[in-house]
Specification:
Length: 421
């Protein structure tokens, strides 16, 4: 396995271009299977999760041509079976459930895997599809669904808010269902608006995406279209915090500040300087950070994916911060690794207390999921000495050219094979 090695203490300077949103690309690739003709998708990020999704889609019979960050997808689906081999490695593969059911009338897909950040059940997906008329069984670790779909009213309210992928699944399936579907309490993330825009380009009839109610009139068929994926707001957040925590000055290109408004507000409260630009922003930081109290919540609240990243920044703040996790309560598995680097963090059920320290110190640490891995790299950028991050295959799932982009900003960072013992 590979490791990432960082020499800390070098301020990041320059500009970095943000790739397309992984969490937008994955459901849009699935949505392209609903069409009767080819779709051309642009600004697709070259990350491991996208590679996995393309392998699954290819295994179904679809024809894929990839040129850089452009993908031409011909939805010649010959089967509707997605095996454990692929699906177990990536939770987002569950978003194939709705399109395959709507297109083929039946689907068998393995229960999904993904990051180790606590249980993320698929009950909202199944509940929503059952409301559309699907018959669903769980057999030997597989979801088996069949039936002709008809529009209905669906409430996607869950114990920690709505589910992004469940909203995507129901929205895609409802496009080819008979009649009208209304989704109450849907997820509101920008990636779902991007998905709705693509479906509408293909001939769908979706209103209200990004709001508190989505209305979908079923249509007989969809046609393949061209579409460009929105910038990845979590990748943008990562480089914003990297610029700040390294005490540098970084211009984030091709980011949408509107998708980052809650984060930018909190960073300004912490003393980070943010200058908005027409197609991005500039971040700089000189003074020691001020502590914060924040809680993650579904969009437009503070993103759970950014929680590990800002916790690293707050570990260097002057005073006590409190970070509550309102989406995935078990998402604090990374704090033991930050403690190894000198962070003063006390866990308390669904929150952590962070007492800022003057300095983090390099150490050997291990990534447990995509964002935890990115957080440890940020910690390494700010730490004194050398930090070695292992299990970096997690990071590969969500970040395109991370080493190259950070090196371009002046980071002393490299990747190498881990020596076998």
């Amino acid at each position: 396995m590979d490791q990432i090695i960082i020499q800390g203490g070098y301020p990041l300077r320059g500009e970095v271009h943000i790739s397309g949103a992984k969490n937008s690309a994955l459901p849009i690739l699935a949505a392209a299977l609903l069409a009767e003709g080819k779709s051309i998708l642009k600004n697709i990020p070259r990350v491991k999760d996208v590679d996995t999704m393309l392998k699954i889609i290819s295994s179904l019979g679809a024809e894929i041509t990839q040129r850089g960050d452009n993908i031409e997808l011909n939805p010649t689906v010959k089967k509707s079976f997605a095996s454990y081999e692929f699906v177990s490695t990536m939770r987002a593969s569950i978003c194939l459930l709705g399109p395959l059911l709507a297109k083929k009338g039946e689907v068998k897909i393995s229960l999904p895997g993904g990051c180790a950040i606590g249980p993320r059940p698929v009950d909202l997906h199944l509940k929503g599809l059952q409301r559309l008329g699907a018959e669903i069984k769980i057999e030997d670790g597989y979801i088996v669904a069949r039936g002709e779909l008809s529009g209905n009213n669906i409430d996607l309210r869950g114990p920690f808010g709505s589910s992004v992928l469940a909203t995507a699944n129901i929205m895609m399936a409802a496009c080819l269902a008979k009649g009208k579907t209304t989704i109450f309490h849907p997820a509101r993330e920008p990636e779902l608006v991007d998905l709705a825009n693509f479906l509408n380009k293909m001939g769908g009839d979706i209103k209200g995406a990004g709001g508190r109610k989505i209305e979908i009139e079923g249509v007989k068929n969809l046609e393949g279209k061209k579409h460009s994926i929105i910038p990845d707001r979590i990748e943008a957040a990562t480089y914003i915090i990297a610029g700040a925590i390294s005490r540098g000055e970084v211009e984030i290109k091709e980011a949408n500040p509107e998708h980052l408004s809650f984060l930018l507000k909190k960073l300004k409260q912490a003393g980070v300087q943010i200058v908005l630009r027409p197609r991005g922003l500039i971040v700089r930081a000189k003074e020691r950070f001020r502590p914060l109290h924040l809680a993650t919540a579904p969009y437009p609240g503070f993103p759970t994916d950014v929680q590990p990243l800002i916790s690293v920044l707050l570990s260097l703040a002057e005073g006590k911060s409190v970070v509550k996790e309102g989406v995935y309560p078990n998402r604090f598995v990374y704090i033991g690794e930050l403690q190894r680097m000198g962070a003063n963090i006390i866990p308390r059920e669904a929150e952590i207390i962070i007492q800022g320290v003057n300095l983090l110190k390099g150490a050997k640490v291990m990534a447990s999921d995509i964002r935890a891995g990115a957080a440890l790299i940020l910690a390494g950028l700010a730490a004194e000495g050398e930090t070695t991050v292992s299990r970096v295959y997690h990071i590969d799932r969500g970040y395109e050219d991370l080493i190259k982009k950070l090196s371009g900003l002046g980071a002393k960072i490299k990747r190498k094979k881990e020596r076998s013992s």
